[in-house]
Structure formats: structure tokens, C-alpha cells
């Protein structure tokens, strides 16, 4: 069974990045790492990268970009690839999943959907200027709208939101009294392509046209009332379209979801927590799928599971396993240096690394190079290699 990664994460916000890090790397002694990929339609960050975020309150808060910077440090440190492509569909193929994007298809044993409440593009570049959002409740927005209509009379505002946009639009029109021209763009999840400022205007770019205005307002409440990112996958959803999960972020066999795509409350703390859970649960699922036994993920889970202890031993290396390198390496002073382990620079080791591409079976590699088990185990122990099936 050939596939691209053990786990594919859809979404590059705090939920998706947290999930990817946990699915990729579990530090437990002797435990396999997994091969993981993140697919995000925009540079990683999501809504959490637009402004200051509060995990619980002012005492635990982070300036704009800080949380995402820390998560991206781990993503880069663990060599997790991030592809900027638009996900169109997640298909359950039985033994594997296929993630269809606007640029191709990728296969995996498990998928974590962390697509957020809305698809983000380049809003971060303009947020707080000509582009703003519904924040802090209706009383605040009433005051904000009144001030905007007074100061910007005769100008144009473009409202962006889902089919549930009408409530906010009605509030604005009541305050506006035709002082500003009003346009609206309904986000269906696939039609908006981003934003651009030009000649003192800001434009909403869609598949078919450019909508010009002096200001753009993103109605977050409409996205909270109408999930438009979850339609990429067929699964059980609630009445507003958000994905239903159990308390371990599981949706179906091999399918997990985390963050805003699972519905309210909408919070970065919840996103990171659910992402961590989804990452660990997807890791356990993949481990069972590959090795037919429970992963000894202590101390995240008890050692005794279903009455039997799990052991911290590398599973037996089988001919059908496909070794895949997870980390980049450098060659220096006669050593092959990975993040957490080193090998002696020998011709047979160089040849082995070239064959550890996830395509060659271990049986084929043994036929070419002889017994390579000791080196394979050393790389597994050093979290630099995994075995795919």
C-alpha cells in the first residue's frame, strides 16, 4: 500500500499546526515518529495571526504572530512540509484517504481536518486598516458603525460573510441611513481569492470579479452561524454544519477534526488543545494500522491499556515496511548529522539513506545492502525515520 504521508493535516491555523507537531513527533523512548504533511490554502497562521490573542485572559496572552511563530519553529525543526494549496475534497478510500487540492492529490492513512471557521487568504496584510471584522459584540459594533458612517459618508463599504450575513447587514443599514454605499459578497468557501489595495481602494477578489470599496468588513458572526469549511469532507455534522467529534477528536475511522471547524466555543486555547488531542489520536491510529499493536505513548496514555502493558520496543522490522526519512541531515567531519542522532559517514550508510524514500521496501533494501536493521533502528530511535506500509 503506497501513500504520501501517514497523516495529512488540512489547515494551517493553531489547531492544524498543533496537530501536525503532535502527530509527527512523540518523544517517548523508542517510539516511531510519523510522516506528516500540512496543507493550507494561505501562509500558516489562520485567524490567530491577525491580532493579539488571549489564551485565557490578559495574564496569558500573546502579541500578534507570537503563537504561530512558536508553532512554526516546531514545524520547521521537525521538517514537516507545509503545502500552500486549496483543499477541495477529502475522500475516504477505505484503507487510505485522498486529499484533493487545486494542484493535485495526496494520500495518507489518516486525515485531521482543522480548516477553521473560514478559509483565510491574505487578510492579515490589511486587517486593522481598510479591512476590519465584527468584534466585541453588537453594542461595540453599533458605536463603531456610527463613527464609520459619520467619518466616511459618501464612501463604499463591502460586507463579506456567509449566507447568514443579513443580521449584521440589517444592523448597519439601520445605523447607516444611506450615508455609505453598501455592497456584499457571500462567501461560499470556494469563490473568494483574497484582497488587494489599489489607488486608495480595497478590493475583494473573487473567481469572477473584483469588488471595489473603501472599506471591507468581515462578518465573523456569519461564519460562526454557518460552517462553510466543513463541506470538504463527508461526515456527521451538527445543524449549522460544524463537524461532530467525540472527546478524542475522532470523527470516523482514521478521520479526526480540531479547532473552529468543530464549532463553538471559538478560542485559540480550544484550538491548540483539540489540535494536540487530534495529533496524538491520529498517531495512535496510524501506529495500530502499521504495526497491529497499541502505541506505548506514556505519559499521554497509561502503560496498561485494556489490561495489558505496552512495551517501549521498536516493532519487528518486516520486509514489507517502507523506511522513510523524516529529517534533513548534514555531512560534517566524517559524520552524517540529523537533529537527534548521527551516523558514521560510510558508503553503505549513504546508499541506505538514498533508499529510505518511502518507496523501497525493506526487503528490497536488504537484498541490495545486506542486514541494515541496526542502522534502521538507530534512525528510528533518533526520530529521523519512520516505517510506512
Explain this structure:
- The chain has three domains: 5-117 and 227-291, FAD/NAD(P)-binding domain (3-Layer(bba) Sandwich), CATH 3.50.50; 123-221, FAD/NAD(P)-binding domain; 316-388.
- Helix content is 27%, strand content 26%.
- The protein has helices at residues 14-24, 66-77, 137-151, 166-176, 220-225, 268-291, 347-355, 362-369, 373-381, and strands spanning 5-10, 36-40, 53-54, 61-62, 82-84, 87-92, 97-101, 105-113, 131-133, 156-161, 181-186, 192-198, 201-206, 210-213, 215-218, 250-252, 255-257, 304-305, 308-309, 322-325, 330-332, 335-337, 342-344, 385-388.
- The strands form seven sheets. Strands 1, 2, 5, 6, 7, 8, 16 and 17 form an eight-stranded mixed β-sheet that branches.
- Helix 1 packs parallel to helix 2 (66-77), helix 1 runs parallel beside helix 6 (268-291) and helix 3 packs across helix 4 (166-176).
Topology:
Layout: E1 5-10, H1 14-24, E2 36-40, E3 53-54, E4 61-62, H2 66-77, E5 82-84, E6 87-92, E7 97-101, E8 105-113, E9 131-133, H3 137-151, E10 156-161, H4 166-176, E11 181-186, E12 192-198, E13 201-206, E14 210-213, E15 215-218, H5 220-225, E16 250-252, E17 255-257, H6 268-291, E18 304-305, E19 308-309, E20 322-325, E21 330-332, E22 335-337, E23 342-344, H7 347-355, H8 362-369, H9 373-381, E24 385-388
Amino acid at each position: 500500500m503506497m501513500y504520501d504521508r501517514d497523516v495529512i493535516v488540512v489547515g494551517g491555523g493553531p489547531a492544524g499546526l498543533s496537530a501536525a507537531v503532535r502527530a509527527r513527533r512523540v518523544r517517548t523512548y523508542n517510539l516511531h515518529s510519523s510522516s506528516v504533511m500540512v496543507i493550507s490554502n494561505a501562509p500558516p497562521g489562520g485567524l490567530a495571526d491577525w491580532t493579539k490573542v488571549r489564551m485565557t485572559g490578559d495574564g496569558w496572552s500573546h502579541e500578534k504572530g507570537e503563537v504561530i511563530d512558536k508553532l512554526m519553529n516546531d514545524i520547521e525543526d521537525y521538517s514537516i512540509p507545509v503545502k500552500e494549496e486549496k483543499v477541495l475534497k477529502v475522500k475516504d478510500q477505505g484503507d487510505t484517504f485522498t486529499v484533493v487540492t487545486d494542484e493535485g492529490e495526496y494520500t495518507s492513512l489518516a486525515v485531521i481536518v482543522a480548516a477553521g471557521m473560514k478559509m483565510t487568504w491574505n487578510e492579515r496584510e490589511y486587517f486593522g486598516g481598510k479591512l476590519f471584522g465584527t468584534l466585541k459584540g453588537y453594542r461595540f459594533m453599533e458605536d463603531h458603525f456610527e463613527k464609520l458612517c459619520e467619518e466616511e459618508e459618501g464612501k463604499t463599504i463591502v460586507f463579506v460573510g456567509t449566507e447568514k450575513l443579513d443580521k449584521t447587514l440589517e444592523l448597519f443599514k439601520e445605523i447607516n441611513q444611506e450615508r455609505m454605499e453598501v455592497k456584499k459578497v457571500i462567501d461560499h468557501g470556494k469563490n473568494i481569492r483574497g484582497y488587494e489595495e489599489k489607488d486608495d481602494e480595497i478590493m475583494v477578489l473573487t473567481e469572477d470579479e473584483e469588488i471595489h470599496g473603501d472599506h471591507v468588513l468581515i462578518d465573523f458572526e456569519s461564519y460562526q452561524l454557518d460552517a462553510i469549511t466543513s463541506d470538504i469532507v463527508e461526515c456527521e455534522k451538527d445543524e449549522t454544519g460544524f463537524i461532530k467529534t467525540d472527546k478524542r477528536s475522532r470523527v470516523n475511522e482514521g478521520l479526526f477534526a480540531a479547532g473552529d471547524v468543530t464549532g463553538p466555543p471559538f478560542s485559540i486555547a480550544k484550538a491548540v488543545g483539540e489540535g494536540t488531542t487530534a495529533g496524538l489520536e491520529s498517531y495512535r491510529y496510524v501506529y495500530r494500522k502499521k504495526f497491529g499493536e497499541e502505541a506505548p505513548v506514556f505519559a499521554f496514555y497509561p502503560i496498561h491499556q485494556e489490561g495489558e502493558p505496552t512495551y517501549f520496543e521498536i516493532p519487528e522490522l518486516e520486509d514489507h515496511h517502507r523506511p522513510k526519512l523524516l529529517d534533513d541531515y548534514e555531512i560534517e567531519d566524517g559524520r552524517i548529522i540529523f537533529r537527534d542522532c548521527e551516523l558514521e559517514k560510510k558508503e553503505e550508510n549513504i546508499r541506505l539513506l538514498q533508499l529510505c524514500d518511502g518507496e523501497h521496501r525493506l526487503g528490497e533494501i536488504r537484498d541490495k545492502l545486506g542486514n541494515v536493521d541496526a542502522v534502521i533502528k538507530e534512525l528510528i530511535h533518533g526520530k529521523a525515520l519512520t516505517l510506512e506500509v
